[in-house]
From TrEMBL:
One Gene Ontology CC term in the entry: cytosol
Record keywords, A-Z: Activator, Calcium, Cytoplasm, DNA-binding, Metal-binding, Phosphoprotein, Repressor, Sporulation, Transcription, Transcription regulation, Two-component regulatory system
Pfam families assigned: Response_reg (PF00072), Spo0A_C (PF08769)
Name of the molecule in the record: Stage 0 sporulation protein A homolog
Protein encoded by which gene: spo0A1
Protein's organism: Symbiobacterium thermophilum (strain DSM 24528 / JCM 14929 / IAM 14863 / T)
NCBIfam families membership: spore_0_A
Subcellular location field: Cytoplasm
GO biological process, one term: sporulation resulting in formation of a cellular spore
Chief localisation class: cytoplasm
Residues annotated as binding Ca(2+): D12, D13, D58
Amino acid sequence: MSAHKVRLLVCDDNRDFCALLQEYFALQPDMEVVGVAHNGLDAVAAIQEQQPDVVLLDIIMPYMDGIGVLEQLARTKLSARPRILMLSAFGQEAIARRVMAMGADYYVVKPVDLEILAARVRQLAWGDALADSPRVPPASHAAGHTLDEVHALLRALGIPPHLKGYRYLGDAILLVLEQPELLGAVTKGLYPAVARSHGTTASRVERAIRHAVGMAWDRGLEPLRKLFRRGAEGRRTKPSNSEFIAAVVDRLRAGSAAG
């Protein structure tokens, strides 16, 4: 596929956003927008007619939403299935997991950095870097724990939910629950895996988690004090990211064993 331009289909009911994407991708020498659809019915028709390499598919569209498009494509015989990159203004984990299970290749929450979006399109079109990378496991299969459960514990420990580090920690903890070996490869394995799920870099994931852990440590809520035995005779220094993740994972596993 690298021998020709990436054929890109844009499906979104926001016409201004579509125009912005068309303008941006027109400046990319290795890409061309072969069509634009503003509703799900037109999206299905355009996929069949234009046979794009990659489809940018919004979830919320009139007549047929993005999920309906995925369902229709699953019933349609195509000569070549395009890679599907879902776009949504909503970041609910349940929706993301649902569309990934239905065949979407990647999920991006708006607003999105156009350079990052273009990088994801290239990865999807030219190789399997995203597909072969570790992904956050489905909530029901992360060693018996859900992302909601992990987030509840993080809030109890004092991690502010508005921070990016809160979301990154949730995904990192689920990954370690599913793949314990990642705790021994935090820099080269865990951070990159979380970064790919959020369209960012491993270094930003590391900094955001460190900031979130630092804020929780400064707040010093009782559950955190107990977890690290913080006090007059306990730990006085802030835990590292890996120490914090390991402690939370142990706490979750201990709760499961007790149950």
